[in-house]
Design brief:
Two copies of one chain form a homodimer. With 204 residues, chain A is α/β, with parallel strands linked by helices. Helix content of chain A is 23%, strand content 32%. The interface between A and B is medium-sized, with 32 and 32 residues. β11 of chain A pairs antiparallel with β9 of chain B.
Amino acid sequence: MGKVKVDISTSLDGFITGPDDRPGQELGAGGEQLHEWVFGLASWRKPHGLEGGETGPDDDVIKEASTDIGAVVMGRRMFDLGERPWGDDPPFRVPVFVVTHRAKETLEKEGGTTFIFVTDGIESALDQAHKAAGDKNISVAGGAETVQQLVAAGLVNEIQLHVAPLFLGRGKRLFDQLGKEIELERIRVVDSPGVTHLKYSVVK
Amino acid sequence: MGKVKVDISTSLDGFITGPDDRPGQELGAGGEQLHEWVFGLASWRKPHGLEGGETGPDDDVIKEASTDIGAVVMGRRMFDLGERPWGDDPPFRVPVFVVTHRAKETLEKEGGTTFIFVTDGIESALDQAHKAAGDKNISVAGGAETVQQLVAAGLVNEIQLHVAPLFLGRGKRLFDQLGKEIELERIRVVDSPGVTHLKYSVVK
């Protein structure tokens, strides 16, 4: 069975979006600054259908994070906000299990991305993702509540935070209400002027 | 005029104490885990009147952070909780300006530490610290509200977070209500298995 991994960009004060995230401003006010480091990288551009881009340590981190991913889990709000900007050819290219209270028919997109809507809970979504992924890993894409619930339930194996050099001050926190202690083990740190990548495994 | 520096240990989810911080449990429940990395280091032990200790990259970080500090600023709650455990020979060894609403007479301790209680606001405390420190730097020791107020007011030059490998889940957050965006510039990252030191300057 593959590993369950979280890879997410945050500000130094722990926000993953700015305030007022909504259609047309999916990352919240100022939230795009958390992702500036990634847009120019070859390994980010390729699955987004863009050519070229930078290589180097940051790119290696993205390449590593996107290798051997067999399925994705995300929350409904992330899907609702993302569907339009991702377009007909979303960057996931694997089955994406969307945790939701509102049933919706499976959506098959171009390029290998299929959105499957799971209404019987987050653990069921993860089970289905494991079945779809086989030996490959599962990426938990977000949002904050989905990540938090899976981490609190002890169902995440690795967490990598990409820390952007700013305080956002307001918005949505990744770990707002975790409510319990969880021991981590540092895997490695990679840093560049635009971002610091902190990678940990969760100690069971 | 010296720089104003913040050096503080946090969990990966941004807490600097556990819940229920009180006399006898000054760091809150579980909060001592945020500081485990420091207790064995030579440069921490020396000002605490203890001999020996480890040297190496973590120790170099502490040595650097404690060099050329001419005064300290802290909040009243930190003083109230710390006074007893720090004892007659506190580790600061410079004037410490305590921001408070309740006047209190200056307290002269052994080893060079003097606590001066400032009732006319945090900026006045910082001014007095600058006068006492001359060309040397000022360390903002905590707690969270004091750090946050000074950062939000644009009065801090450097911030170093010592990130311990755990989620604390509850407690006091360092940057809970900053409320505004602040741009940072990475100075450097140092990491070891027990802690990751993220050092930034504040962009004015």
